[in-house]
Design a protein that fits this description.
Strand order of the largest sheet: 1-2-3
Number of helices: 5
Shape: elongated
Number of strands: 6
Largest sheet: 3 strands, antiparallel
Structural class: alpha+beta
Distance between the termini: 61 Å
Length: 151
């Protein structure tokens, strides 16, 4: 590590501390030449996940989009924000654990729908109606009948 004061390349670590739940390490260093102290930070480099949309285009994963969709689906429903946060966290964890950096939007939608189906049937139907993009009332009724059959 290069000293910010004298550009010397040798130092010693005086103190190390984890922060942000272990995602970041703060190191206090002392230059072996000028004896001044400085701080460096270490974090795991993470590449953003890319989402492959239905039309084949790619965009970076944005948890805010999932959050907006879930809030719309759960509007005026007895679903806590903690439940919504846990759905978002589970999607993010799945993406982080995946070896692929490119994930189809259909996989993300399926994960969300499975969790909503168990949480609130009305929120599930609302989300599914947008996500599955029903072309007719018959397709919508078919999904409702499947939901009723599984209940």
């Amino acid at each position: 590590m290069k000293c910010p004061y004298c550009d010397h390349r040798k130092d010693r670590v005086v103190d190390s501390r984890e922060s942000k739940e272990g995602a970041l390490i703060r190191r206090r260093r002392e230059c072996l030449s000028c004896k001044r102290r400085f701080t460096s930070y270490e974090r795991i480099e993470s590449l953003p996940s890319m989402v492959i949309k239905k039309d084949g285009s790619r965009e970076t994963f944005q948890k805010e989009k999932i959050q907006r969709g879930l809030l719309r689906a759960c509007e005026k429903r007895p679903v806590s924000t903690q439940h919504l946060d846990s759905i978002i966290e589970s999607v993010e964890k799945c993406l982080a654990d995946s070896a692929d950096r490119e994930i189809p939007s259909s996989l993300i939608g399926q994960m969300i729908m499975e969790q909503l189906r168990a949480l609130d049937k009305v929120a599930y139907v609302r989300f599914a109606s947008v996500y599955l993009d029903f072309k007719s009332v018959e397709e919508f009724m078919e999904e409702l009948n499947e939901l009723l059959a599984k209940s």
